[in-house]
Amino acid sequence: MTRSLIQAVEAAIPFAEDLFRRLRERTRDTVGVTRAPYGEGEQIAHELIAEAAGGLDLEIQTDCAGNLYMTWPGETREGHGVIAASHLDSVPRGGNYDGAAGVIAGLVALDALRREGFAPKRDLSVMAIRAEETSWFSAHHIGSRAALGALPPDELDAARRADTGRSLAEHMADLGLDVAALREGRRHLDPSRVTAYYELHIEQGPVLEHEGLPVGIVTGIRGNVRAREGRCIGRYDHAGGTPRKLRRDAVMAVAEYIGALESCWDRIEAEGGDLVLTCGRLFTNPDAHTHTKVPGEVNFSLDARSHSEETLDRMEELIRRHAAEIGGRRSVRIDLGPVTRGAVATMDPRLRSILSDGCRALGIDAMEIPSGGGHDAGDFAGAGVPSAMIFLRNPNGSHNPDEDMKMEDFALGASLLAWALASTR
Question: What fold, for 3-222+344-423?
Fold first, then answer.
């Protein structure tokens, strides 16, 4: 099952191309695509994918959170079998492949295995996960956590969608989902009964493109320390009439603060540590700022990520310490707001070995690669499910309308996924 498997996948590529085309057309925004979680775009995507799975004679099921399961029954129906999954929502005005490529690759993989005459011992399921993107609800991986029974009930009301201001529970109720069951913590997937979880995803950085390789086998997913709602409160003063020693300048304080954290980043990298640090939001109040006024307030965000829990511990301490020290010295208050923590997720060594064996057997050029972005695979791994990820080359980055994926690379990734689903015992 080598060359013939690749040929079986290639025979299903027109099916995949048609699905990608229809997804793009049906969820197109003025720029890129928009598939808001628990909104029109994501719902359209789920309905399209369910219809396609029905055409492949797969069993169709949804859970209380609206996650979609498309299953090829195995000889034994014990447990949940092996799951290939990704999400179908997108960032606002994003690209067509982030998430969707993994779901469509799962369908292509099952179709190819069926063409090959493969008979699954356990259930093989493709899972289309809801609400992975954090840009909408400021809550991470809602669908996967709900499926695993790990979604705190208070998030149903506390998490509000950025574009509507309405709660997660309200948006779920609009789609007829069982919010009451989620409040009770009901789960669809028992982690102890899932044999393995595989997620194919476009790479969200330029490494594979730079290395000239189509496929990456993910070693792990960076954890994070985040302050999404940071504020620096100083005092508004006249720009010409207030001497430096009497100023409480919020912009200058935040500039020093960010510079101090970048120096920490320099030191950690010089020591051989793994860290990326981002200040993704940085702005003054447009109703109050002017070029003739000392700024009295700045809003900002911080996102520190690492494959080392020790480095994250260190960065969390430094983020807090420098805020207090610089704030006190400059007579401002640097309020970080809630500081959240996402755990490092290591991909399962046995599943990674299966993927490596598959690359050799199928003649796929690949490399091991860490993931800087978060993925649902991290939640499955954190719940104790053996998990692995396949990255596909993407020359234009992710979370933007220009994200790209060669269909030749997609075919290789889907072939590798099919190999893994057939090889996992």
Answer: Aminopeptidase (3.40.630)
